[in-house]
Amino acid sequence: MTAEHGSLTVGVIGLGHVGLPTALGLAEAGWHVLGADDDQARVGKLARGAAPFYEPGLGELLGRKLADGHFRVMARPADAVAESDVLFVCVSTPPREDGTIDLSHVKQVAELVGRHANGYKVVVEKSTTPVRTADLIIQTVQQLSDHRMDVVVNPEFLREGRAVHDVLHPDRIILGVESDRARATMERLYRPILDRLPAPGECAECERIGRRHAAGERLLITDRTTAELIKHTANALLATRISFINMIADFCETTGADVAQVARGIGLDPRIGPHFLHAGIGYGGSCLPKDVRSFIRMAEAQGVDVSLLRAVAEINERRIERFVDKLRQTLGPLSGKTIGVWGLAFKPGTDDVRDAPSLKVISRLLAEGATVRVHDPQAMDNARQLLPQDSRRVEYCASPYEAATGAHAVLLLTEWDEYRALDWTRLRRVMASPVVIDGRNLFDPLDVRAAGFEYIGIGRP
Ligand SMILES: NC(=O)c1ccc[n+]([C@@H]2O[C@H](COP(=O)([O-])OP(=O)(O)OC[C@H]3O[C@@H](n4cnc5c(N)ncnc54)[C@H](O)[C@@H]3O)[C@@H](O)[C@H]2O)c1
């Protein structure tokens, strides 16, 4: 890809799961991108060409963009501010105890821009922030700078595990703008990406998820507050679909119906569609739980009735207990039992374990006196930082077979492709008792039962 119509230098502050793919995507589009982060270890690693987390294709793209000079890692964020025309704010927005969002990192970046801007800049709010944060950013910037600047809200919808694909083939680019100059700059910035979208049939992942609409339909210009609310609404609706199908799964379990078939039956309706209708142990990760809680707090503060979303969050929280209950019903008390765990990442394709349901399940098992043998293709190092350091209670295993060895049951908690084609006969030989509890409905119950296992899924007869 090449950037046409003159050059724009792009600064990206915060090189995490959103900032790094965004920076590299814009570099791949032909722009010169300067990345900065206040984590010096991360900065050093990136400068050496090492991706700081697992994301398919990211390491390779990083190497190429460093080599062709389109991406540079700056030791001092202030330099990235001074040298850039457009500045993306991609820093963390962690939740506070009460569910509201801690905006201190966003404020720090706004102050940094206010102090070091040497002319007009477009500041892009890419982090997910409460509504009207853009107003706070522009106030902070303008209090510290005499240069006139604009803030644009450009929420991110990438999926971890598919981040590189999604920044290069976005389903939508939402721009919340309140000035023609900022709008023109942002449209120019995204033009090379929109001009290079794959044609129908060209990209297997776009085909798989039905991302086929024309470039012209993918750009939506709104006011800033609307753009902020679009992001929250999207995540709230995705969470709602998951809790909804999990509620249906519970109903299936009491009636003998099959939730996978119910989901398929409703998903064929184009008004409903098939996505985000997989029953399981609930949603996790660094976004959905935090964003749903923050949406509830924001809306409550405005006097909006959010009982629907409160139910969504409560259903999700109960998934873990319901899941562990299935294990107790099968094995009896868990004290002294060995449980194999397949999958730690909050979803496949990432090593991210932030707010992963797996960790909640494991801490419940440990609290009840079980020992766990865990396996994950990518996320073991990150899980190690968060799980108890007792090697007699938590053992990290090199394969799903090793994790199952001596186990009274195995739990499938992340639906990695690696687990799709297991040798059930071999597993039966190594396990203490042949029990599989499938938290993601990954396996074919007939196959597993045919190998002599007791199989328990979610909402399946
Ligand atoms: N992870 C996702 O899938 C996803 C998707 C859409 C939106 N978001 C939102 O994007 C934002 C970033 O999320 P993430 O997953 O990339 O987080 P992350 O923790 O992976 O990355 C954040 C980065 O910002 C850096 N940082 C924090 N404060 C800084 C500061 N003052 N100056 C410079 N760098 C700073 C951190 O060191 C870290 O590298 C959040 O608001 C999140 O809700 C995340």
Q: What is the mean predicted local confidence, pLDDT?
A: 96
Q: What's the count of strands?
A: 14
At the fourth CATH level, what is the homologous superfamily of the largest domain?
A: NAD(P)-binding Rossmann-like Domain
Question: What fraction strand?
Answer: 5-15%
Properties at a glance:
3 domains; alpha/beta; binds nicotinamide-adenine-dinucleotide; N-(1-d-carboxylethyl)-l-norvaline Dehydrogenase, domain 2; Rossmann fold; 461 residues; 6-stranded parallel beta sheet; disordered N terminus
How does this model look, in words?
The chain is of the alpha/beta class and 461 residues long. It has 3 domains: 9-222, Rossmann fold; 232-311, N-(1-d-carboxylethyl)-l-norvaline Dehydrogenase, domain 2; 319-456, NAD(P)-binding Rossmann-like Domain (Rossmann fold), CATH 3.40.50.720. Helices cover 45% and strands 12% of the residues. It has helices at 19-28, 40-47, 58-67, 77-83, 104-116, 133-144, 163-168, 180-195, 204-209, 215-218, 224-255, 259-267, 288-301, 307-331, 357-367, 380-386, 400-404, 424-430, 445-450, and strands at 9-13, 32-36, 71-73, 86-89, 122-125, 150-153, 173-176, 219-222, 338-342, 371-375, 394-396, 409-412, 435-438, 454-456. A 6-stranded parallel β-sheet has the order 3-2-1-4-5-6, sandwiched between helices. The chain has a 6-stranded parallel β-sheet with strand order 11-10-9-12-13-14. Strands 7-8 form a two-stranded parallel sheet. The longest helix has 32 residues, at 224-255. It is globular. The relative contact order is 0.09. The site of nicotinamide-adenine-dinucleotide (NAD) has 26 residues, from helix 5. Nicotinamide-adenine-dinucleotide (NAD) is lined by residues 13-19, 37-39, 42, 77, 90-93, 105, 108-109, 127-128, 156, 158, 160, 286-287.
